[in-house]
Amino acid sequence: MLTLFRNIFAAPRDLILVLAAAWLGLTLSEKRADRHGLNPNELNNLLFAALLAYIVGGRLFYAAEHLNAFIKSPFSLVSINITLFDIWGALVAAFITGFVYSQRRRMSLLPSLDALTPFFATLAVGIGFSHLATGAAFGQETTLPWGINLWSATRHPTQIYEIIASLLTLGLLWFRKADSKPGSDFLFFVALTSASQVLISGFRGDSTLILGGLRAEQIAAWVILLVSLIGIEFLKPKEVEPVMAGGRVYPVEKPRAKPEARKSAPRKAVMRKETKKKTRRS
Amino acid sequence: MQPIQRRILSVLILLAGLAWIFLRADKIGASTAGRIPAPQKGFLAPEFTLAAPKGEKITLSELKGQAVLINIWATWCGPCREEMPTIEKIYEEYKDQGLVVLGVNSTFQDNQVGIVPFLEEYNITFPVVLDETGEVARKYDLRSLPSSFFVNRDGTINEVVIGGPMSEALLRTRIEEILNSPSN
């Protein structure tokens, strides 16, 4: 079964799994956009802009790092080789583009990240499946009965652990009650993902060892976990205004500032009415 | 959950995480890479001895100390044909610095008669060997053609590129990496 799966989705076909997960994740995020006061189309556009920047930025950063190679063969800049890619550069480019786009569209950062959380969580599942297909992120050797035969040894199925952890994270996020604190869904996702990485990286067979045998990936995940848990503590609820009704005080969410486009809408309606009147007169 | 309960839980999670990190520290090396042969980045390149069309034999381990590009190909494979001139060009450029390109023809799924005319057509000067039994295909877990393995001077795999054609920039960046790798 595993062999068949690995044959079907062997690299570079494993990208199909990542793309399918991205598409499913985007669908889930669009469904949840309303809960965070966002327009699904705007969310879609935001993600599209960020993804485009991710792809272009990843290649450009890589080219900048290996300038000599690209000067000698400039056409390589548009080659189909996906390994000519700098993932950190891609993430920086995607974040900057997403941030600029959301600011221009007056989308608040934290609700946008909350709305995109199902996308990130589903993508993590897809990446787990991709690792399983290519044999990347493999585990240490083990004698446990659920070990898988990979790279000349029976190993911890760390890719399967990764898929299970990501599915659990997605499930917990999806069925989580709506929180009044913007950013809480996103930080909850980051905390769950980094916690599972601290756990799973302990079984990895391709860890980078530092400080006398500690695994760099685990330490990085632990620091992210710490930051996300501190972040959760500092989240503030949405601003509310007390409203008097029937002798009782009710908290009501403060209305958000209307974007320019919406302000101009009533003017357009008045203009339309005037045009109709003119037409009737004539 | 009350804020104080949440904070206690957070601290407990962080402490448990820290304990797990120290518990799973690996003094002898968490990575099994570099010690056992497997067709994956960081592992020893699996050993093979194959014959060239003219009969001379080439053993991979004899090339230890040199940067090696193993390119598995077939005459009928479009991307293989497309990348051959680039590989030849790069080989000519870097061979004096210690680069060895080893073309492994997947002969068990190719037409042996067409191999030598193919090499002449593309003016290939790097050594080509014939995988007549599928031994290399099995050892290197071959799933797509072409497949390329960039091997460091110490015999470990630096990068695996499945599919093609490889661009010139990809070949240059990877080859410069393996040329700069330590010998042991």
Task: Determine Rg of chain A (CA atoms, Å).
Answer: 24 Å
Briefly note the structural class of the backbone of chain A. mainly alpha
Give the CATH topology of the largest domain in chain B. Glutaredoxin
**Tally of individual helices of chain A:** 10
**The number of domains of chain B:** 2
Could you give a short account of the major beta sheet of chain A? 2 strands, antiparallel
User: Strand content of the residues of chain A, in percent?
Assistant: 5-15%
What proportion of the residues of chain A is helical, as a percent range? 55-70%
Class per helix and strand makeup of chain B: alpha/beta
| Series of H and E elements of chain B | HEEEHEHEHEEH
What is the 3D form of chain A? Answer: globular
Average pLDDT taken over every residue of chain A? 85
Q: Which pair of protein chains has the largest interface, and what are the residue counts?
A: A-B, 49 and 42 residues
Distance between the termini of chain B: 56 Å
Q: What does this 3D model show about the protein?
A:
- The complex is a heterodimer of chains A (282) and B (184).
- With 282 residues, chain A is mostly helical.
- Chain A has a domain at 118-282.
- Chain A is built from ten helices and six strands; from the N terminus they run ααααααββααββαββα.
- In chain A, the strands form three sheets. Chain A has a two-stranded antiparallel ribbon.
- In chain A, helix 2 runs antiparallel to helix 3 (40-65), helix 2 (14-32) runs antiparallel to helix 6 (109-134) and helix 6 (109-134) packs antiparallel against helix 7 (158-174).
- The longest helix of chain A is centred in the N-terminal third of the chain and has 26 residues, at 40-65.
- The model of chain A is unreliable at 257-265 (pLDDT under 50).
- In chain B, a hairpin with a 5-residue loop joins strand 1 (49-51) and strand 2 (57-59).
- Chain B contains five helices and seven strands; from the N terminus they run αβββαβαβαββα.
- The model of chain B has no long low-confidence stretch (mean pLDDT 90).
- In chain B, the strands form two sheets. A five-stranded mixed β-sheet of chain B has the order 5-4-3-6-7, covered by helices on one side. A two-stranded antiparallel sheet of chain B has the order 1-2.
- Chain B is an alpha/beta fold and 184 residues long.
- At the A-B interface, helix 4, helix 8, strand 4 and helix 9 of A face helix 1, strand 7 and helix 5 of B.
